[in-house]
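Subject: Protein entry, chain in single-letter code together with its fold tokens

Area: Proteins and the way their chains fold up in space.

Attached in line: The record itself begins immediately under this heading.
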Amino acid sequence: MKKEIIKIKRDKYFKARGSQTRILKLRCSHCNKLLFSYQKDGLPGGWLKRCYLNRIISNKKINSTKPLKCCEVIGIPYKYKDGRIAFKLAKGTFKRSYGDPVLK
């Protein structure tokens, strides 16, 4: 299998979180289908409550006006208080797995 090379987004949000990031793989909890990879900035751990559209790493186009769906609705799009588009995720509808930590 060919190893995927991911370009890390290094912007003001990345720097504000201590310049540490992890790549998460989100899967549907029912069918285990890979939905997308996600760049989570900051220290690992804690709940994943929202996914910002500009942090989603995916081969397919994700529509920012429609809910994320697989077997059921996984996330609802909304505008976060800083102006970025995010998907509010529903607990129990997805599984996440961490890849290797990416530092600076």
